[in-house]
Write a structure and sequence with these properties.
This protein is α/β, with parallel strands linked by helices and 336 residues long. The protein contains ten helices and eleven strands. Helices cover 27% and strands 21% of the residues.
């Protein structure tokens, strides 16, 4: 008798993890697959998909399980998963994170928010929504988000053995980082115990989400002759807020001395300046605020600030929009 709760037409139970670089989704996928294979004797596979290996860039991790007598010959990306784990809820701004989800599928989200708000943002109609505040757990235990998410995933995948996962955690950390073994086990247990669930009934005959694969705008049929890019630069249109890992810089303007140390280390267009006069009537640039559209939460500016005018702040929904000071790019906007 199969211990897998569901299987697709090929006999696989499939999980897709949606994350950004730096949150440990790739390692989480490896550890999850290892726990199923070594702990329960299932056949399993794991691989990840990502672009440039840097913090803040989108990452997908894929896990397949099947019975021991079924061979895994499919190594394509998972398009119709039974479970989706979202390590960073702001990803929906950049990626269709619930693409291809089964009508009775389960979505796990790292968030402190309420169910209905997340359901609305993800445009989730039915299925089961699970929420765990993995970031708070990882901050308190001084670990990473991935271990807390693993704990919640093991609660969802009740056919998996949590003790097997704890053995994998010990094996993963005890050689290089022995001091991190117990904190990660505590993080795993808290994720397992603190995850919350809410089910939204699907009507009879309901279909899952259609999988959409993003296609490049330029290809061999649409590329301009000679490879010329005739469109103006579009970097200023990008919203980088989905790359933040839960923290952003908070500006206390009354402590600012307008030294521009923050702007010197900032990799993007975050700091907004305006021309003015100092107390002696000399012309000078003054810091006006932060355009959070371009802030990836690297916090280099916080480290560089000599006066504590910048501090790190746990991001709350709506804070960036309420405190954003917009950049002004008149030439780019008007194409002059």
């Amino acid at each position: 008798m199969s211990i897998l709760p569901k299987r697709n037409e090929l006999g696989f139970f499939e999980i897709r993890l949606e994350s950004i670089g730096g949150l440990g989704a790739n390692l989480a996928g490896k550890m999850l697959a290892e726990a199923g294979v070594l702990g329960l004797g299932l056949n399993g596979s794991n691989f990840s998909s990502y672009g440039s290996e840097k913090k803040g860039s989108p990452v997908k991790s894929f896990i397949r399980f099947c019975e021991p007598d079924v061979e895994i010959r499919d190594h394509s990306p998972i398009e119709q998963p039974h479970i989706i784990g979202i390590f960073h809820e702001a990803l929906y701004k950049m990626v269709d994170v619930v693409s291809g989800l089964d009508a009775e599928g389960i979505v796990l989200v790292n968030s402190p928010r309420d169910f209905d708000g997340i359901k609305k943002d993800l445009q989730l109609e039915y299925g089961t929504l699970a929420i765990v505040d993995a970031l708070t757990i990882s901050v308190e235990e001084k670990t990473k988000v991935n271990t807390a998410m693993l704990g919640a995933l093991f609660r969802i995948c009740d056919f998996l053995d949590p003790d097997a996962m704890k053995k994998v955690i010990r094996k993963t950390f005890e050689k290089k980082y022995p001091h991190m073994v117990e904190p990660n086990i505590r993080t795993f247990e808290r994720g397992y115990n603190e995850v919350r669930f809410k089910h939204y009934d699907a009507p009879v005959g309901a279909e899952g989400k259609t999988f959409s694969r993003p296609l490049p705008q330029l290809g061999y049929l649409t590329q301009e002759i000679g490879g010329a890019i005739i469109a103006p630069a579009n970097s200023i249109l990008k919203d980088l807020s989905g790359s933040r890992q839960g923290f952003l810089p908070e500006l206390k303007i009354e402590k600012c001395i307008h030294c521009a140390s923050c702007d010197t280390v900032c990799p993007d267009f975050c700091f907004v300046w305006e021309k003015g006069e100092d107390k002696r009537g000399r012309e000078q640039m003054f810091l006006k605020g932060i355009d959070y559209q371009y802030c990836k939460g690297c916090l280099k500016c916080v480290e560089a600030c000599p006066t504590d005018a910048l501090g790190d702040l746990r991001e709350a929904i709506g804070y960036a929009e309420a405190n954003r000071v917009r950049q002004n790019f008149p030439y780019a906007a008007g194409r002059i």
